[in-house]
Structures are given as C-alpha cells and as structure tokens.
C-alpha cells in the first residue's frame, strides 16, 4: 500500500476529484493548506498598494491505494491538476505499512 499526497491549486480540486471518482477512487481526505515553493510567493496589488503573499492557499489530497494502483492514480491527479504554470503543485508517494478499518478491524488492502 502507498499513501499519495497531492498538493494542488485549489481551483483544480473539483477536476481532480471528479477524475478520481470516475476512475473508481472515491475515498480521499482533503485539507485546505498554505505553502510556497520555488517562486517564494507572489506580489499582488490592491488599491494601488503592492504587497507580497508568501504563503499561497492550496488544497492537499490524501489517498491510500494498493501498490498496483499508484501509477494510475498519480497519472489521473497530474493530468487533472496541470495548468502548465509555476505553482501547479507536487505529488508525494509514501510507503504505508498497514491500514486498519476501525469498524471491522480489517487490515491491509481489504481495509481500503
């Protein structure tokens, strides 16, 4: 099993969620986060004044899948989240030792 964490543009979340659901991956955890990458934030103007926003709002999606599904899920997320601009996000793949469904105590892939 692997845990996939994707940090994407908030405006692309619905597209990613719908693509994952269409492919049969309904279970996910979603968190609104803030962060910055190499661009170190952005400069904006408001009422004639310039100010720097160094932590950009993003959406973090966490999904746990069987090893065999990792590349498929990564491809779905990457294809659905891309805009071609700096700040499209990152995808992290993390090994997961075990998963346990609380209600039934099922373990491993059956708990997913």
Automatic annotation (TrEMBL):
InterPro entries to which the protein is assigned, alphabetical: N-reg_PII, N-reg_PII-like_a/b, N-reg_PII/ATP_PRibTrfase_C, N-reg_PII_CS
Pfam families, per the entry: P-II
Family: Belongs to the P(II) protein family.
UniProt name for this protein: P-II family nitrogen regulator
Source species of the chain: Methanoculleus caldifontis
Lineage start: Archaea, Methanobacteriati, Methanobacteriota, Stenosarchaea group, Methanomicrobia
